Amino acid sequence: MGSLNKQHDLHAAQRKESLAAWLFMLPFLALYAAFLLFPIFRGLYTSFTNARLVGTVRIIGLENYAEMLADKDFWGSMGNTLYFVLISTPTIVVVGFVLAMLINAKLKGTVFLRTAYFSSYVLSMSVVTGLWIFIFQPYTGLINTIITKFGGQEIFWLSTRGIVWLAILMTTVWWTVGFDMVLFLAALQNIPTEMYEAAEIDGASKAQVLFKITIPMLRESTVLVVMLQMIASFKLFGQTYLMAGGGPGTHTRTIVHYIYESGFTNRRLGYASTMSIAFFLVVLGFSLLQRKLFANKEGR
Amino acid sequence: MTKRVLVLALALMLVVSATVFAAGTQESAKPGEKTKITFWSPFSGGDGDIMKSIVADFNAQSKTSEVEFLIFKSEEYYTKLMVSVSSNSAPDVAILHLSRLLEFTSDNLLEPLNKYASAVGMNWGDFSGVLQKAAQIDGNYYAVPLDTHLLLMHFNTKWLGELGMLDANGKPAMARGEKAFFDYFNAVKGKLGDNQMPLSGTSQFGLPQYVWYTLLTQYGGEIQNADGTKATLDTAENKKALSVMKQMVDSGIWPKGQKNGAEIFTGFRATATINGNWGIPIFEKVNGLEFISMPFPQFTNVNSVYADSHTMVMPTSRQSDAKKQAAMEFMAWMADNTLDWAQAGHIPSKTKIVDSAEFKALPYRSEYAKSAEYAHFYPRSLSLTGMIEVVQRELATMIAGDQDVNTTAANMQAGYQRLLDQKR
Amino acid sequence: MQHSLKQTSLSRVLTYALSYILALLWLFPIVWMTVSAFKPMGSPVSILSVAFAPPFTVENFSIISQKAPVYIWTYNSAYIAIAVTLIVLLITSMAAYSLSKLHFKGKKIMYIVITMGLMIPIEAIIIPLYKTMADLRLLNTYTGLIIPSLTAPLGVLIMKQFFDDLPNELIEAARIDGAGIFRIWYSICMPLSRNSLAAVGIFTFTNSWNNFLWPFLSITSEKMMTLPVGIPQFQGANLSEFTLPMTVSLVASIPAIVVFLIFQKQIIQGVAMTGIKG
């Protein structure tokens, strides 16, 4: 009898816990479902229609998808985005690592250095781009004023192919590298000092310490940093849009920019939704691929 | 810990109350309260400040309405406006360039004004003939014109005088025609030092497009055929216009890469600048700048200059008739008070104001008001916004030196034709 | 031995030089912005000898408020960021507690569903999100600006990681003492996770403060604009000179910079925490 009762109590307790668990989940889950999951399905539906910002909607099957695959502007902006992912991810990761090493070198004024490297991260994107427009602007901008003062030629930072990417990259590194730096710094400080002491006793050179201890110990952080950085770079829009208007021509028009242009400037919501789906799949694919690659290396 | 819970609860309440507050302020004028009218515009030069003060004048004298005035970045303005109409968050009154009228009416984004206009006793015959005709589609009026505005060239007279480039009347000694233009500015260029340029003008967005359309029409071209079904941009006329622009850039007369041409002119680094009449209030404010605003040079025997008209329109909405009537009253008041608007360099829309002594007394206007006679508007098109986007991008690419004339013309043609085809 | 000592000190000098030069380079744009904001309107601040020499003035700060509601934008940004942060802390810690310490059917699926959300960039759903918000009449409202920032799953995952590390014995002990599920959450788990909460809070705050795309699309009223949206508008309308835009930028940055300087340690710990836990 007693044990049955107990079991009954246990069931009741389990039910109660289960109910409580769902109640605790509810606020987040409701918002998550309504404003993240639902829009995905809605976007999927819209991608099969000819929806415009106004007017009647008709289902047109895969027409948008066919148009997208044949649209060289789509491939162009996707290419621009990938290009930025490829140039920005290694740069920002390496610079972040170097800055973290400098801070970890136990110099005098570490706090000052850390503050200096990190402070730009807290600025808003519009402030950052506004500031760097003034730095790069031809004729009256900061850099060109200095260059021409010393007899150099005007450089058209924001309207020359190639160079504009350099300008966008510099801006992005300056703005966001502090974040990656701190991630590396935390990982560096977690490496047990005994390992370095042991290496010193063994007479290891600095390069050996770097490549045999420091870098391998940072693997996990690196995976994380690369992953976060890649996703951030895929989403590039503000810097290129505000600093170069996607130009010269369409040279810096990213996929998010093109989605915005198609959906809002040209009012083709259906087509823009189709490209959003493609964009989503690409990001998802890259994240999964990267996870898989690194997971293998770690032998998991 | 209870403190934390309290704070969180408080925060939630704050958000909820904000929602309620935001929902509550969404309209509904109570009796005795002024009707709130929202009014959007893309004015980014000196004309923004002037419009602000005109609206303030309206608010001061009106007993029934209060206008909230907003300025948007011009590159994003039309996107914002269309999006807002489609999501029921449109302003009560908006500035619309006359050239874009068809695009808005074809998607039913604008209210016809006839009913409201006759209630306030508006006489459409007061407007200049061109504007009056352009403001209606199929017998319905959709827009109240405020002005005609056009592209000009502004010269730093003090500087050019020192260089000996002015004639006896103190005006630039430049004859008519393509050759005269290049001769004049090449001569100026020969007299300038490092870091100085003959002619400034922003190298992207609207400005190159205004120059382009001016030249295109001067050389006898147009963007589309008569019924607006085929783009006509891969033509000899367009290539000629483009190559003249490219020559201006390549010869160093109008150097490339300018983020903001007006700033270079007001910074005394260019002897002249390409800008619309809307640049005048900015230039007037610069200490020590002596300038003259002239009609844009004529490169051929065909008189033409890019022009457009700022009009006021009423986006489609579910507002009450009373509110729409109040908005119409505001629009009518504005159209009667365009003399102040002329401070911004614009040419008023009503003929009696243009003919008034007060308008004629304003500086510079007499120089260029006559070029309004050959002002050239874009033809009506269902895809003008998209066309402008394509043209601006292609021009910016060409000016940056990344693309030759033929490719530019071909890209413009393909881009615009694609838009025209989508509409069908 | 002596040789190696010399080498070490040389590399030390180089390290010093490199790190300080980089620090100055990194700070320079911010310093330039600050100085320019105090220059009389129209000063050619690109010429550094002009920028860093007197005269200085505070006039710009009142001029900008006449030209645009910069201070309202600042208020909006702050209000939204604070509201977002508080709500996110509340709902993510609740969800994380449930996922980590409570037992219920479907827990595993929930966890997967939420983890998948990490890979959805908001940029990819911006168009349907816009339509949804328009249908709900939430465009141009604070609520409409706040909601999309509440669905980020990273907070839940960070908090879950942390709760996972809390010893179950602690919770068992409390349960034996008669504490209920809610009580255990708010009087045991929450106080212990102060650092994680700080981490999540700081991220959420900076993300919201810097959020550009969504407010850019969804706000069409000047009074509802946040700083990231308002500043480019202001710059677009005041192109012909540098000092006023610099002043606006400075005003926009002061709150973030002050918060950063005060909470520097927590912020950096917070960032680092995601690194270790993520």
TrEMBL record, chain A:
Compartments (UniProt record): Cell membrane
Chief location of this protein within or outside the cell: membrane
Gene3D superfamilies: MetI-like
Membrane spanning residue stretches: 21-41, 82-103, 115-135, 163-188, 209-232, 269-289
InterPro entries: ABC_transporter_permease, MetI-like, MetI-like_sf
Keywords, comma-separated and alphabetical: Cell membrane, Membrane, Transmembrane, Transmembrane helix, Transport
Membrane topology classification: Multi-pass membrane protein
Signal peptide: none
GO biological process per UniProt: transmembrane transport
Any single Gene Ontology cellular-component annotation: plasma membrane
All copies of domain ABC transmembrane type-1, residue ranges: 78-290
Protein name per Swiss-Prot or TrEMBL: Lactose transport system permease protein LacF
Organism per entry: bioreactor metagenome
Lineage, highest ranks first: unclassified sequences, metagenomes, ecological metagenomes
